[in-house]
């Protein structure tokens, strides 16, 4: 006996179109980075040697852990445990702050070493690509903070989850971009 | 439990990315990138129960990008 599967898109449809638009912009930037690397491999090898892969890994783990906490918060809100959801979101924010701290330290270190936007093609694209992503992380943190506040006030629960799902989806989009960006910029 | 399993997979794949990069296994690095993107899309974003078109679009994004990166190597 066949049963129909109830397929459902989480969050608002508008958020999905926004995510598609964002992913398209990031795709252009990432491919621009890859094309330029093909044209100037020695410049990219030299530039990448200035980056610390373990720092990149630490940032990856921070973003992914914040994503896990946001997803767990969404589950708690769905189960009508708003306060617990708010706590998980605040914890996610704190974990995301680790990424911000590491990224700012890396930026400071590179800037102090004279490896700014105009140093080489690698660093021009590095600053544009990672800086654009960094801004998205900051916006994502504002969204998580807003969701935490709304959860604390009991705004989300069974049947009124769409806003929270959309906000959490934005954070996952930031993670999605980073898992492609990290190996390209730091490892390959 | 499922979310935790996704997170563990993502952590292991991330560590694997760095180790593969150090060993010069670029193909493992790009495969891990696609796998991580799929875990995020299907696990965290819950697209495994979404309409097929949306799921296909999100799963195709890392594949297209990584294919582009590989072709240009």
What does it look like?
The complex is a heterodimer of chains A (188) and B (73). Chain A has a single domain, classed as Four Helix Bundle (Hemerythrin (Met), subunit A) (Up-down Bundle), CATH 1.20.120.80. Helix content of chain A is 80%, strand content 0%. Chain A has 6 helices and no strands. Chain A has helices at 13-39, 41-48, 53-78, 82-112, 121-152, 162-187. In chain A, helix 3 runs antiparallel to helix 6. The N and C termini of chain A lie far apart (49 Å). Chain B is mainly alpha-helical and 73 residues long. Chain B has 3 helices and no strands. Chain B has helices at residues 2-23, 26-44, 52-72. Chain B starts with a helix and ends with a helix. At the A-B interface, helix 1, helix 3 and helix 6 of A face helix 1, helix 2 and helix 3 of B.
Radius of gyration of chain A: 19 Å
DSSP strand tally of chain B: 0
Tally of helical runs of chain A? 6
Portion in beta strands of chain A: under 5%
Task: Please state the second-level CATH architecture of chain A.
Answer: Up-down Bundle
The major pleated sheet of chain B works out as:
none
Largest interface: A-B, 41 and 41 residues
CATH H-level homologous superfamily name of chain A: Cytochrome c oxidase, subunit III, four-helix bundle
Tally of helical runs of chain B? 3
Q: Total number of β-strand segments of chain A?
A: 0
Helicity range of chain A: over 70%
The coarse silhouette of chain A is elongated
Give the terminus-to-terminus CA distance of chain A.
Answer: 49 Å
Domains of chain B (count)? 1
Overall pLDDT confidence of chain A: 93
Q: What are the secondary-structure elements of chain A, in order, as H or E?
A: HHHHHH
Ends of chain B: how far apart?
A: 39 Å
Gyration radius from CA atoms of chain B, angstroms: 13 Å
CATH topology of chain A: Four Helix Bundle (Hemerythrin (Met), subunit A)
The helical percent of chain B reads over 70%
Main location (chain A): membrane
GO molecular function (chain A): cytochrome-c oxidase activity
Subcellular location (chain A): Cell membrane; Membrane
Protein name (chain A): Cytochrome c oxidase subunit 3 family protein
């Amino acid at each position: 006996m066949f049963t129909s599967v109830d397929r459902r898109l989480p969050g608002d449809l508008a958020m999905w179109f926004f995510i598609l638009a964002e992913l398209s912009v990031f795709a252009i930037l990432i491919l621009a980075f890859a094309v330029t690397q093909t044209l100037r491999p020695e410049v990219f090898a030299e530039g990448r040697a200035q980056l610390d892969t373990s720092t990149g890994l630490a940032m990856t783990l921070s973003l992914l852990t914040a994503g896990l906490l946001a997803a767990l918060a969404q589950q708690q809100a769905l189960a009508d445990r708003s306060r617990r959801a708010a706590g998980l979101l605040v914890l996610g924010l704190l974990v995301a702050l680790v990424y911000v701290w590491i990224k700012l330290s890396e930026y400071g270190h590179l800037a102090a070493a004279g490896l700014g936007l105009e140093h080489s093609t690698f660093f021009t694209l590095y600053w544009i690509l990672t800086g654009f992503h960094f801004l998205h992380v900051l916006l994502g943190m504002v969204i998580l903070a807003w969701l935490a506040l709304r959860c604390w006030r009991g705004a989300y629960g069974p049947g009124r989850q769409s806003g929270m799902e959309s906000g959490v989806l934005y954070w996952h989009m930031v993670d999605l971009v980073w898992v492609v960006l990290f190996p390209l910029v730091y490892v390959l | 439990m499922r979310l935790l399993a996704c997170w563990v997979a993502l952590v292991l794949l991330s560590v694997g990315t760095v180790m593969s990069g150090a060993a010069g296994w670029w193909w493992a690095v790009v495969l891990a990138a696609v796998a991580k993107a799929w875990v995020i899309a299907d696990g965290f974003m819950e697209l495994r129960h979404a309409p097929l078109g949306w799921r296909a679009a999100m799963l195709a994004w890392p594949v297209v990008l990584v294919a582009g990166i590989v072709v240009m190597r």
